What does this fold into?
Amino acid sequence: MAEQEGKTIHSVAKAIRLLDLLTAAGQPASLTELYQKTGWHLGLGLLAQEIRWMKDNEPELFQKTAMFLSVPSYISYRMTGVAACDLSDAGIDQLADIRRGAYDEALLAYAGISAEQLPKLVRSGDRIGQLTPQAAQALGLTTDCVLVAGAHDQYAVALGAGAVRRYPDRLRHLLGHHGHRRCT
It folds into this structure.
């Protein structure tokens, strides 16, 4: 979470009791509809739930927060001065309808925020911007370097492995922070 100047004011990494939270707040959508919009099942530690938790449990901090950023959008902001998030990562935040490529009003209302408090949505491969002088110096690069939106690691690996509809018989196995198996 960041103040107007982009200074980090809080990092939420708490185990949230989602059933209690959803019951108290009113479920933003059916779980099926949530998955269809975001491409992700409801889970612990995702941005929408963290924001709602903060609103309900730390209202002073919530009011002080100008931007709600995930790690990729925070890095984008620090590197270029532009808070941006590609749609594959925006789905994980559970605030965007990835089918429409836009933030979802019902999910924003659930979290208690507006789209203006979130990063700009971009597509993988879009140009975000050039490095700021501070970022260029810290990285040993020039301000001519451009940051381009990436993709969530699971989606990028699936594409790279050819596990797409064109090849329905392929199975990929990726182990990282979480272990996943996907058949397409």
In short: The first strand starts at residue 84 and ends at 86. The mean pLDDT is 80.
